[in-house]
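Try this one yourself first.
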């Protein structure tokens, strides 16, 4: 074979090899393209399966595990006994679900005079049975300390001598308010008394909430040395749909039932409430042994009638709460 023929043969071989490479690359590209689409389709299929499965598992958990009703009940009952003079309305509850989570949003109200006013807006997020997020937006003008200590409670036990409250200033603030106002006031007594005795002693104002002597209120410290806040119950009849005290023959008995119920979920109840520590076992045991006595109440009424309480020998201190324009019809 001469040089010319060798060149022709070499060129043919290179062309054939190039064609084979081109075919090979096309096959590779087609394989990669097909694999990508298979992966995308498989991923979409998994997502379409996972999302409804997650929602199904979520609904089953909140139906048969730690039920949504349990979480709502613990939330409602905790706020009624740890947040003085507050109430909730069922129609305000907004419940929604995402995979493994539940959102609960609602508004809290205070009775000032004869009307209920929005106090706080709650946004709670639960991951399964645990509280994962808590946001509270307040509408109040006078807010109790977010981090209570043993010396700054708004309701003070008769044996608590360590006070930071300037009660003389509070009476002067009340006196300076216009007569055409209704007031929420926190009244502490010199001695323990029954709730019935407290109501009978102050007939010209509404006693709306009573703090109960639980054995730790003398120092506001539990036996473990943790700061505790007052607990108590609404005194007035409450027939709102969501209230645990609705149609109750005895608010005192409902109060004890609530304490025993939220004791089963004390960690959750503590996270929901503004109190850092509820110390429910020792407080329940004390009340069962000593009975329900109050050392302080929340009252509401016309400014002049609340101011008149200063002359009563049972009243030790006062803390002014919310103030609104006249709405008293009596």
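Now uncover the answer:
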């Amino acid at each position: 074979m001469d040089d010319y023929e060798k060149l022709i043969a070499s060129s043919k071989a290179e062309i054939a090899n190039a064609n084979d490479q081109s075919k090979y690359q096309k096959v590779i590209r087609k394989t990669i393209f097909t694999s990508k689409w298979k992966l995308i389709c498989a991923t979409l299929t998994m997502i379409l399966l996972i999302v409804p499965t997650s929602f199904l598992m979520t609904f089953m958990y909140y139906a048969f595990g730690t039920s949504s009703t349990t979480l709502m009940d613990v939330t409602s009952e905790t706020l009624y006994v740890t947040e003085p003079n507050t109430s909730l309305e069922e129609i305000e509850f907004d419940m929604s679900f995402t995979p493994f989570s539940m959102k609960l949003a609602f508004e809290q109200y205070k009775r000032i005079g004869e009307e209920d006013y929005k106090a706080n807006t709650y946004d709670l997020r639960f991951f399964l049975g645990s509280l994962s997020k808590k946001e509270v937006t307040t509408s109040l003008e006078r807010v109790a300390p977010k981090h209570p200590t043993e010396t700054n409670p708004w309701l003070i036990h008769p044996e608590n001598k360590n006070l930071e409250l300037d009660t003389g200033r509070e009476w002067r603030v009340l006196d300076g308010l216009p007569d055409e106002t209704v007031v929420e006031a926190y009244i502490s007594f010199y001695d323990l008394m029954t709730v019935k005795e407290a109501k009978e002693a102050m007939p010209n104002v509404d006693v709306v909430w009573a703090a109960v002597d639980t054995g730790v209120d003398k120092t506001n410290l539990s036996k473990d040395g943790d700061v505790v806040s007052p607990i108590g119950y609404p005194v007035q009849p409450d027939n709102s749909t969501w209230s645990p005290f609705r149609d109750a023959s005895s608010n005192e008995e409902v109060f004890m039932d609530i304490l025993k119920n939220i004791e089963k979920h004390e960690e959750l109840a503590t996270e929901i409430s503004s109190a850092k520590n509820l110390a429910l076992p020792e407080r329940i045991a004390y009340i069962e042994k000593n009975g329900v006595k109050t050392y302080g109440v929340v009252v509401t009424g016309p400014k002049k009638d609340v101011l008149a309480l200063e002359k009563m020998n049972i009243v030790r201190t006062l803390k002014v709460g919310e103030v609104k324009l006249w709405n008293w019809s009596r």
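Discussion: The chain has two domains: 1-65, 70-325. The longest helix spans residues 3-64.
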